[in-house]
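Team,

Forwarding the record for the chain on the shared tracking sheet. I've put the sequence and predicted structure together so nobody has to dig through attachments.
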Amino acid sequence: MNGTPGVQVTTPSDTEIAMTRAFRAPRRLVFDAWTRPELVVRWYGAHGWTIVECEIDLRVGGAWRFVWRGPGGAGMAASGRYREIAPPVRLVYTESFDDHWYPGESLVTHELHEAHGRTTLTTTWRFPSRQARDLVLRSPMERGAAEGFERLDGVLAAIETRRQQ
């Protein structure tokens, strides 16, 4: 794995995928980018995909839902519930896609660590089975996430530039 520059992908267990990526931004801003709809819609998705619906009820037990439109009119939607919210260091939620391209739902954990003005984000997906994990590993998930992170770099830089002016 790890065919994408800047993104490190590992498999900590038979049912998990972990992805690590560093950003040139403070942890608080990276956390906001995952939890504020007006920021999420600006970056979350692979190149060519746009979020057309973004609902976030950021509280433990609250729901989230994203709907994307992509190339050729393709569509995709995912949703889940927040399990743990500890700004700006940790966010845990469930994730399930409407088309169920892998069985069950995953548990997603974001851990954010800041040092020297950079934030390292480690995201771990825990799947209900090895089969589900392996389906995701064979999908273009790594490429899509890396492209979304590139878009996030631009959003973070624009916000930081605006703050400094």
